[in-house]
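Can anyone check this?
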Amino acid sequence: MGASRDNPPQNSLGTVLKNERQTPQQLSYLIPILIESGFCEYSKKGKAFFVNYKE
């Protein structure tokens, strides 16, 4: 997901938002909405959360 405020992982949603001059913190609100709407699902591995688009 890459919601780190300072240094989101490369190729993450957080990086995409930072490149658009937005804050990765917005993912805290956006991802649950997308999951609830059925657009994506998530999994957790260690401390990292992974968001996958559902086709």
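Reply from J.R.: I decoded it. The chain is about 30% helix and 20% strand.
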